Amino acid sequence: MNIFSKLSLIALVLFGNAKTLMAQKTACSYDEKLKAYINVDQGPEYPGGLAEYGRFFFKNFKLRDTTSEFQSRVNVAFVVMKDGTVSQLHIPGKNKAKYSVFDKEALRVLALMPKWKPGTCNGKIVPVYWVMPHILEPNHDF
What we know:
Oligomer: single chain
Largest sheet: 4 strands, antiparallel
Order of helices and strands: EHEEHEEHEEE
Strand content: 25-35%
């Protein structure tokens, strides 16, 4: 079994972006370009929570190209829509042409996610921009 067949998530660091996590102490703010809120009262939640998210991610994360150089961190950004679906999946700060096999596989897996519990602003359900950093380590038991 090669090194890449046993990838596991050792941490989901900063579940969501820091602005969203701190949003309970700030006013809601909307980003016109993203068509989503970046600060909310209550961030979106994956069904079953963080542990269930990790199980889903690594149940579905499969590398097809094991000749690539190992990448230990993959940041994935997306918008959790008002109905809980995920849209606008991308790797922040990277052009699609520069996506690694790890980036592409993380995006593929996240496109399979079930609906989330959407975020809220002033008690109203709103679309929320969310960033999920992933730390990957070869041969680590999850």
